Amino acid sequence: MLVRLRRGLRLAVMSALALAWATPIIAATTIFQWLFQSELGVVNWLLVTLGFDSFQGYTWFADGTATFAVLVILVVWQSVPFAALTLYAGLTTIPAELYESARIDGGNGWQVFWKITVPMLRQLFALIASLEVIWVAKCFPQIWVLSQGGPDDATTTLPVYAFKIARVLHRYDLGSAVAMLTVVILAVALVSNLRRMVRS
Question: Which of 20, 41, 99, 185 is spaced 20 to 30 Å from 136 by Cα?
Answer without folding.
Answer: 41
